[in-house]
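Internal tracking record. Fields below are filled automatically when a chain is submitted to the structure queue. Please do not edit lines marked as system-generated. If the sequence contains nonstandard residues, flag them in the REMARKS field before resubmitting.
Queue: standard
Priority: normal
Entity type: single polypeptide chain
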Amino acid sequence: MRAAPDPAVLIGRYLSGMARISPPIRSRRTARAIEPVPTKVTTPDEQATAERQDSVYHIYMAALAMLAILVSVGLFVSPSEPDVIGVLTVVDFVLCLFFFYDFLRHLWKAPSKLKYLCGWGIIDLLSSFPFVLETRWLRLARLLRFLMLLRAARVLWESAKVERRSITMACATFLIQTLFIVICIVVLHFEHSAPDGNIRTAGDVLWWAMTTVTTVGYGDRFPVTIEGRVAGAVLMISGIGYLATVLGVVAQTFVPKHHDR
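SYSTEM-GENERATED OUTPUT FOLLOWS
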């Protein structure tokens, strides 16, 4: 008489057969979890356009950095000239706005935001504060200007690494910016004491220079002296040539580069 099979052996065989027929639910979940996540595919045209846009951004940041160096030197060299200080202070405030935007851009793109803030981030933030000329804040102002110069040197170095050919455009931008400031100072010097003049303050001359260099010309502010009119003509001609160059560079950033097939 054959002995009855052991119930434990039968249960083991049953479970072994079920495992061969259907994989465990846990394995299915694991397989779904390790499926690769689809990534966005960037076309060569999109990548080239992004590189050109980044190059243009570095061009203008390099030009602003060179202008910041010039303004920082001017603020300390001529503290007794109220007209010059008025123009340079307004320009310095605008530059600080651009540098603060650059700080936010670096912070947004930084892989480790804490590492960036503990390194160059704190310098970028402090160098974004405007210049203060009061005596009690003079040491702080000198420290902030030193940080601004340090940051400007770093921006120039980064721009040169991105595309060395872009330095030419950055130099052209720096020249028109320098010419803009010099003409503002010259015009304000001759116009603020003219009997029939209507350019009296730094705000007046900056508004006039902006409308002149962009060829808008509202006509509410205009030079009445010979020296002021000559300076205005130089600024107008320079602005037309520079705007043509800028429009050409901007157009290239939106036109994809196709290679000949």
